[in-house]
């Protein structure tokens, strides 16, 4: 039985490193800005290293600063450890639970085992993955991506602080002493292989609360593709240029954004535009000659992601030739994250834990809408995730909130799932 | 008969003050950046003052730096002068003709009269209106607006350089010695009243070239209203938030922009969005909580401008409640410029000039799509405008171009119209 109070207190005490964006009176009513490898991130890392060592764990750090804490199992080490992993970095206007809960829960699981003299068969441990958010060094799930061989380490090392291009991820690893000597890889010869990877995370969406469920058994993650569209037209005076003489890229972009939504809806998929930009010299009485906007397409099946993309591009062609003499457009693919199916045994262990703790009516099988470190680990070891509800589905925001009860329930589920997996 | 070569050479020589944005080999193939009361504007003003004084004009400068050059008529001064006016300031990425042609043409008219020993009955003269563009100090047709009593002088004086808030329009008037002592007003007691105002200007649109006409007889200007819409929704993760749980202001804005176009089209009016903005912390995988966009609605009849606005706002309400739980919006009115009908006698004088020079088939009665200084002068003296074609309707752009033939023809028409008006 995990200690719910200790979990809650530990989580909020360590959030003193990086707390900001106060939104209420209560001491814990702040958000977080603990950006990867800033001084607060270094402080919480140092604290984390101390705590796992107190528990008797052996700590390894790889060349991306990923921290692996290992508790020995009963059988010696016949196989790589069963890991519970997540991340301690946050968004610049982030909250206290995204990532942080997963690491604190894993620590609480180890503390509970130690305190009860409980030993797993195989080694178990915790991973703190570096730069999951990609907020300071712009590549999300960065170091689990390097570990999985999906991102070249040089590319990751060379990432620059988005506000200070003189600082790289590698220079910050060096500054804080987190450029370890183990390869960032799942290769047993040079790197740090894992036997399994379990991640507890807040849902970051409204599905659990809307369905009144307290545990999400996450069996995979949806695929997504990020496109940046650039639409070209012609500068024109809004007062003197008849519609028939215009090539208006903002009007075309508006119709494209609306069309992408309608197409995605038809396919039960998602298509979203987060950013739209006109040139900085735009003015109220000038039709801009260029507009760029992002398009984020998602669905649990890659074939549907592609179908939505293709239908959107066809619709965009049609829109570009409407309204006057026609605009043109081109696009780049910024991120391509195929759909992932998690490991059946890991999912079964989580389902077993959920059944025991809350029953089938209170849990739900689901697909992660967002990317997580587990999406990368699942390429190299059996992996799955546990979701707990967060208030109103809000995350990446100071008011992000997960109740003490839900934090505790998720942590207990994590413990039970790991024990179940270890024993089967 | 005006001297076409002198006109062309004078125009391009004076464009050396502020020339930039080269786009071709030819010495005149550059744009202009002669922003109101910058050093280049001060140089061309000084040159202008010298030229009109050489012609024997009396020069007056009012408290907005408007420059009035007066050539005495045969009858003494029984009435205020018949003015030919426009502006010498440009957009930051402007061209060599917008405004500049009108002032250079007026000067050429005076030179032609002088050279031919021709004297009008009444006083005639030239006005260089300060800050027509509103590009540096953000208020367009600024000083004709003050002259007409539509803009309080203190408000105009307090306008700040959009790139350097320590500089005001008044401080720049003082720095260059253009804070005159005459009131900026049409009041005969304190200000500088005008007997009439004629303005030659490039069309800034494609109507003349598309209809193969060389002179536009401008009988009025359409009304316009500039709105800034702010659409409010809710931050949400694009991967984890189902459409049904979103309040997506960018999707709503897109539908609004498309709807405003369709509504305007139905009314044979114009509705245009030049600027759209999401918060600077927007990201590809976040639905923004707020979007702002501009809406510029125009039609020659104010009632239609209002009808389009009302229909847009109704459509926006409907759109705001679509797609999930609904967004909200509010708006501000930034500019309200009612439709203007120019003076019948002034228009008749221009029509007479056009008939004589090119005939009815080569000229066309039209309504100005854009605002001009003449829109303000028409509130206090008989006024009208002459349009000449500019290449592809392009203006506010370095490649803005009006052929030597069209510059000359417009200038000749200006001379004939003023003489016709003076005599009738
Ligand atoms: N959890 C999360 O926000 N991941 C970032 C990548 C994504 O947008 O899915
Ligand atoms: N001529 C011109 O661009 N005037 C500015 C105001 C308008 O957009 O009509």
Automatic annotation (TrEMBL), chains A, B:
Domain Peptidase M20 dimerisation: 220-320
Stretches assigned to coiled coil: none
Pfam families the record matches: M20_dimer, Peptidase_M20
InterPro entries noted in UniProt: Amidase_Cbmase (IPR010158), Bact_exopeptidase_dim_dom (IPR036264), Peptidase_M20 (IPR002933), Peptidase_M20_dimer (IPR011650)
Origin superkingdom: Eukaryota
GO molecular function: hydrolase activity, acting on carbon-nitrogen (but not peptide) bonds, in linear amidines
Keywords from the named record: Hydrolase
Similarity remark: Belongs to the peptidase M20A family.
NCBIfam families assigned: hydantase (TIGR01879)
Protein name: Peptidase M20 dimerisation domain-containing protein
């Amino acid at each position: 039985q995990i200690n719910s109070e200790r979990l809650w207190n530990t989580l909020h005490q360590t959030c003193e490193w990086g707390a900001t964006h106060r939104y209420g009176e209560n001491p814990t009513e702040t958000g977080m800005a603990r950006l990867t490898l800033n001084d607060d991130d270094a402080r919480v890392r140092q604290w984390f290293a101390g705590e796992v060592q107190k528990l008797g764990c052996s700590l390894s750090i790889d060349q991306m600063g990923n921290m692996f804490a290992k508790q020995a199992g009963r059988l010696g080490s016949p196989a790589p450890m069963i890991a519970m992993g997540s991340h301690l970095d946050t968004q610049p206007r982030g909250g206290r639970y995204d990532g942080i809960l997963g690491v604190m829960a894993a620590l609480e699981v180890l503390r509970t085992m130690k305190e009860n003299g409980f030993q797993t068969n195989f080694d178990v441990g915790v991973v703190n993955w570096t730069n999951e958010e990609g907020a300071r060094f712009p590549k999300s799930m960065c170091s689990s991506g390097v570990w999985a061989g999906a991102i070249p380490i040089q590319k990751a090392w060379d990432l620059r602080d988005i506000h200070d291009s003189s600082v790289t991820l590698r220079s910050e690893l060096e500054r804080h002493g987190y450029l370890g000597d183990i390869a960032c890889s799942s290769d047993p010869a040079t790197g740090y292989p894992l036997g399994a990877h379990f991640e507890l995370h807040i849902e970051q969406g409204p599905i659990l609360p809307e369905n009144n469920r307290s545990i999400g058994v996450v069996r995979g993650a949806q695929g997504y593709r990020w496109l940046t569209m650039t639409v070209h037209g012609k500068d024109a005076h809004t007062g003197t240029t008849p519609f028939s003489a215009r090539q208006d890229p903002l009007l075309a972009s508006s119709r494209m954004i609306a069309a992408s939504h309608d197409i995605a809806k038809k396919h039960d998929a998602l298509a979203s535009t987060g950013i739209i930009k006109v040139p900085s010299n735009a003015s109220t009485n000038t039709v801009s000659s260029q507009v760029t906007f992002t398009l984020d397409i998602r669905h649990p099946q890659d074939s549907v992601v592609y179908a939505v993309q293709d239908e959107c591009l066809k619709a965009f062609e049609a829109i570009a030739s409407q309204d006057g003499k026609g605009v043109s457009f081109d696009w780049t693919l910024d991120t391509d994250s195929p759909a992932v199916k998690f490991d059946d045994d890991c999912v079964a262990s989580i389902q077993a834990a959920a059944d025991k703790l809350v029953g089938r009516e209170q849990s739900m099988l689901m697909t992660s809408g967002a990317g997580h470190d587990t999406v990368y680990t699942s390429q190299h070891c059996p992996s799955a995730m546990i979701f707990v509800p967060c208030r109103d589905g809000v995350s990446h925001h100071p008011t992000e909130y997960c109740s003490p009860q839900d934090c505790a329930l998720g942590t207990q589920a994590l413990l039970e799932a790991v024990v179940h997996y270890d024993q089967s």
